[in-house]
Amino acid sequence: MNIQTVLIFIGLSFAYGQDRKITAKLNPGYNTLSSDVTLVYVKCEGVSDTIHQIWDFTRHMPTVIFAVTSVNSTLNVTWTDNVPKNLILSEEPTYSFATAIDKVYEYDDLDDNGHIDPKFPQKPYPLDRIVWNLNESLLTDKEAMVHVYGTLNDRHGRQETIHIKLDLIPFKDYAVDLPHLIHTANSTLFDISLVNLTTSKEYNASRYAIHLLLVSTDPETDTMHYTMRKSLDDEHTPGVFEIIEIKSPSLFEEGEGGYLQFRPVAYLQSTRGVASSAIARVSAFNRTYLPRHSTLKLFYSRLNTDLLVQDMFVSFGEAGDGYYKQHNYTAWSFTIGYGTPPVESFSFFVIMIISIGLGVPVVLALSGITYVLLRRYRQRNNRTRFTNED
Questions:
Q1: Using CB atoms within 10 A as the burial measure, which of 81, 168, 173, 345 is most buried?
Q2: Whole-number Å distance between alpha carbons of 1 and 282
């Protein structure tokens, strides 16, 4: 490996947080094995800071918390029965960002456009009574992943379930499943699937939307920022050329803070593909408060700092897709992260194809020009030789 390769590797590691060491623990401090108690603590140690991540399902509301501290800091978790009593950092975080899903909404989409609209009937389904069961987990120094599921109802042998997968890897890569969002050591992939939910009989056009809470240690009078940028690269998510980012005020104004990043696409079948895709739409932000008896309340009530708390809806569907009952399935993914959101890039294969596509015509053109010049040069030399002989 030459010095140039080493410098490039170091540069990429710095840019994407690939130098973080991750340590993941399931239910730290809880001494009883139980499939319905899931709290994951991931300590992501970098050169100059540590990102503490808390993935919690014990208080029914799927929650992801990021807290940034100095390198030599720890998180202590104490329990009361099967729920955390205290989440105590050894020092005050310099920044924190979090998201949680507290409700799923069913709405009657009479305009058939995929937007949840207050003018049409809708029903909230709070998640405060769902018991989340751990389906699988992988907690190593190379990856932290959990897959949980919760049952809304079990009627007539048909389970109405919500599946959630959280995944973190300490280097830059693309997620395995569509829409192939970008992993970094500073972010976590959040994938949610709504499976076999029963639609209301009085609704003719039922769709579902997710209600997201957003929390950051920014001034409470500020606001989150919605940005959408175009991408020429749809290699990883065919047919989708937009990237949506929800940025905290610190990130938007100062270049470093919390964010959600996703493509505006959902999938209506478990086998994800272009044919089974639909549009994911984001509502405006509204100011709200930390839910009582939530992990958000437990963690942030101890911090001596300002707190910005807002919410938004993410709804799914488009005209003519048959509404939710057509497939009884909707899946959506986003990443939650800290720092600067990653930017997608062309793969080596695509770069090679582009290089060949551009290079071959150039080589042919240069070859043609060279051939013409050599031919003319030879003809001129021949004429000169014949003249000398005379």
A1: 168
A2: 46
- pLDDT one-digit tens code per residue, 48-81: 999 999 999 999 999 999 999 999 999 999 999 9
Return the structure tokens found at 170: 């300490």
pLDDT at 6: 38
Contact indicator for 41, 25 with CB cutoff of 8 Å: yes
Q: What is the pLDDT confidence band of residue 233, given thresholds at 50, 70 and 90? A: low
Residue 207 token pair: 């769709």
pLDDT band at 16 (very low <50, low <70, confident <90, very high): very low
Cβ–Cβ under 8 Å, residues 219 and 129: no
Determine the Cα–Cα distance for residues 76 and 83; give it in Å rounded to an integer: 14
Q: What is the CA radius of gyration of the chain?
A: 27
Let me know: does 28 contact 77? Beta carbons within 8 Å.
yes
Contacts of 336 (CB under 8 A, 6+ apart): 64, 66, 97, 99, 187, 188, 190, 258, 259, 260
Contact (CB, 8 A) for 38 and 134: yes
What tokens appear for 13 in the block? 């590691």
Residue 369 half-sphere exposure toward CB, CA atoms < 13 A: 6
